[in-house]
Amino acid sequence: MSVTSEIVKDFKNFIKKKGLKYTSEREEILKEILKSKQHFDVDELYMKLRKKGSKVSKASVYRTIPLLVEAGYIQEVYKQDSRSYYEVTLDKLPHIHFICIKCKSVDEIIDDYLAERIQEEAKNKNYTPLTYHLEIFGICHKCKKGV
Amino acid sequence: MSVTSEIVKDFKNFIKKKGLKYTSEREEILKEILKSKQHFDVDELYMKLRKKGSKVSKASVYRTIPLLVEAGYIQEVYKQDSRSYYEVTLDKLPHIHFICIKCKSVDEIIDDYLAERIQEEAKNKNYTPLTYHLEIFGICHKCKKGV
DNA sequence: TTTAATCTTGAGAATAAGTTTCAAATTAAA
DNA sequence: TTTAATTTGAAACTTATTCTCAAGATTAAA
Ligand SMILES: [Mn+2]
Ligand SMILES: [Mn+2]
Ligand SMILES: [Zn+2]
Ligand SMILES: [Zn+2]
């Protein structure tokens, strides 16, 4: 069984356990998201679905995202220009996002040690950490060179 | 000379150097911000000014904030519910903000080592870091105990 | 199956932070 | 002063996200 259909089955279970109804819209949205290999926002996702001929409304996309976050398949990873960006978080720990303030490009940096230390800091302060956002704002290599 | 009037003088200089005009509105806003000991958002700041009898408009508050960020007196430190929060950054390095997803309280955690490592990570990747946001989302001690 | 209760949907209205517009007021240099 | 350039307040605008509600879909029971 493919990873995707495994997740779809899991999601159906999750929905049922919550006493909600499993709909084709919810499944369509999940499947489309699982195809994304990068960060995405609601508009991008919605446009992809429409192009494929899907009839889901933007409202349903907005309504499904919190469910997928709760189920643990995606996470909000940063906000830019008052828009939220998400990414699939299968086996993926939170990580650093470097955001270039000139070209708005976003790059990922993984640092396991840093991730661990962040967890520790929360625990030291008697907090129960769930997730985190670490965004470094600056100038990327290309913009520095004036490309 | 007080720290505040020193900064006010500096700010006047900064404004002049940019070829802009030094106005009472800009000074009022700066002075009010310097009084804040915690994180603030535009609405809070605007309300404080109005209560004091100030006639500044919200538009001017929105227009002055980027100048104060550029001058280095304040920084945007996190976003919550589609609102930006700022704080005075006199001698204050960026630091960790722990945000309780239940009570929405925000706590600060300082970790110089972490701060240094974040800078290094950016440089390793050939980025010029300017600032960063590190927000840990979780449950605070009080909320865990059900207070 | 049918039924019936409950939930979800799409469409569009509503909300609200932040930005823009523009005429009137203010600044600052001469 | 005079004058050119900038800034202001008020209100209109923009835009992501949320809300509303009637119509349609799902589910468990009959
Ligand atoms: Mn990422
Ligand atoms: Mn802080
Ligand atoms: Zn760049
Ligand atoms: Zn709390």
TrEMBL record, chains A, B:
Name listed for the protein in its UniProt record: Ferric uptake regulation protein
Membrane-spanning intervals of the chain: none
Cofactor: Zn(2+)
Gene3D superfamilies: 3.30.1490.190, Winged helix-like DNA-binding domain superfamily/Winged helix DNA-binding domain
A Pfam family per the record: FUR
UniProt similarity note: Belongs to the Fur family.
Keywords assigned: Cytoplasm, DNA-binding, Metal-binding, Repressor, Transcription, Transcription regulation, Zinc
Entry note: cofactor: Binds 1 zinc ion per subunit.
Binding site residues for Zn(2+): C100, C103, C140, C143
Protein localization: Cytoplasm
MF terms (GO), sorted A to Z: DNA-binding transcription factor activity; transcription cis-regulatory region binding; zinc ion binding
Biological process per Gene Ontology, one example term: regulation of secondary metabolite biosynthetic process
Gene Ontology CC, one term: cytosol
Oligomeric and partner information: Homodimer.
